[in-house]
Amino acid sequence: MPISALKLQLQPENIQIATISKLHQLLGDIELLIFDIKSQNSLSFAINEGLWFCIRKNMSISFSRSQLESIIKANSSPQSHQRGKDYCEEGYVCQVIRRENLLEAKVEGSQEDNYLVSVHLSSSTIESATCTCPYDWGGWCKHIIATLYYYQLYPQNVLSRPSLEQLLARLNPLQLQRLITELVNYEPTLIEPIENWVNRLAPSSLPASSSRQQIDTKSIRRKVLRIISDEVRYLEEGWNDLDNVHEELSSLIDDAQALIEQGDVENALLSLEAITETCTQNWDEADNYGIEAYETAKLLNQVFTEAFLSIELDEADQVDWEVKLQFWENEWSVDFSMSRAALEQGWDYPPLQRVLQGEITTNTADETNDPIYYAAALTSIRLKILSSQQRYEEYLYLAKAEGQIESYLTCLARLGRIETAMSEAQQLMTTTELALALAKILLELGELEKALTIAKAGLLTQEGDSQAELGRWTVELAEQLNDVKTILMAQIKTWEAQPSLSDYQKLKQLAGSDWSNLQKDLLDYLRSYDDWYGQRAKVDIFLEEHLIDEAITLLDNDSYLLDQSVLKKIIPYNAEWVIKKAISQAERIMNSGKAKYYDAAVDWLKQARQAYYQANNIQGWQNYYQELKNVHGRKYKLMGLLKPLI
After folding, report:
1. Does residue 87 contact residue 93 with C-beta atoms inside 8 Å?
2. How many beta carbons lie within 10 A of that of residue 108, not counting itself?
3. CA-CA distance, 600 to 604, in Å (whole number)?
4. Is CB count within 10 Å lower at the N or C end of the chain?
5. pLDDT in tens, 48-97
6. How many DSSP H helices and E strands does the chain contain?
């Protein structure tokens, strides 16, 4: 198995959340196993030590504090954001390890358990983040947020370790085989995902279709029944936050998907039938507990569709499947319309055939102008199959006819039809997402100038949600090409989409002598920017420009924007306001009586004390300190922490 394939298999997003904690341990075990395998060779050990030195030397933070704030706010609720900051400040983060672009952390939970966090970094953003806690109420949990702040604030405490790829690169094929064997012995549940990956990567080793062994559908039915029964039992026992049914059933459906990709569609259909029929027969009790079938049925619908389009069925089989799908729909109260349409139409559907032959009309691949809700999903599955069969002309016709412009343009580029892709993009490219996708393909193909042309055009569109991402990407490419004018334009577009202090400061450097005019335009734009996630950037920039009253107005309206770094900047300008805010924050914590938060309260009071001194009101601080002793004198931990502030 190629190293990259094993690395992908061990990524947290590709496995169930319950297995993440085991994989955190396994990375450490991989290091020990590799050391054991290589320890007989002193030269290898010396190389290992050199590698560790390089990793430590190259450890660096990829983004600024303001960028981190912006990224976190875009992926969290105000409540989880604040709690995550508190967790970081209060020492709940036990350990953070960086493995190249992977951060791993242990964070104390509220139930005395340690939760394991995994964060995948890139040069300017965070690609994904997962945690083993049960939080599932929108955005990142407080443990992920605490980890990111810890990584930013205490880089000296972040341990560096080799990445999985670096670890595996030290081994020859025999050593790699031994490692995988040891890991499976240590964690037997890894054998199934490894088997799936081997089958996907080497399908030619499978026996011919005619000699394939039929899968054990009874085993699949038992697994489905167990999944549903376990969930009902958990809910009966009061575990109301589990709802793992879809996650576990998805794993079984993914196995059927893998069979399709291996060319074993017959067994895939047998597996899908076993899953669907068992769900239909046993879902009533789950439904009584409010367990939704929608996501599971949606995935089944998609995989059934691909299966029907990947096999030739005779008329009797088609009728048989049509009856089954209709029955399951009625009994389970789900929707299999797309898979029924795929079953009925196949590839011989006359409107579809006309499109595949290049006859594109306003009706596209359907007979009517009435939109069908699953049309885009059905087309995507057809395109996937056409691509796998290298039927590229038909792929292009269908993608264009059905408005799948990203697929159409990127396919043109990959086929080497660069000029056609550029020409078509002028007419069809309407969103930042389209521009970014095509520009990335052109860059991969070495067409840097053309990639930059597409990216610049994309930044001028008014549609799409990827302007900030496209802007940053364009800046990097323009820097490679030394296109100063485009760098400034793309940086402005990036900042407009996602204001931040760091990008504002970068614009100041880029603008040079033209800064005064640009500064006025940026501040006017910022004042009219009303997205919640940009409010902290507004505060930071207003403080940067000494627009203290405007910053204070924002902070008065939203307490979540307030932190001690902000107070420090305001103290010289409005000490009385800082005293009021800092004391309010501290008293909220002290009055709650939770001793583990007293450190945070004292940090707020340090700001209040500094503000009193800035205002030449030392007596005012002493009077307030005496009030604290009178009210909280019996809180011995708190008073001990306050003593240095006398």
Report:
1. yes
2. 17
3. 7
4. C
5. 333 333 333 333 445 667 778 888 888 888 888 888 888 888 888 988 99
6. 33, 5
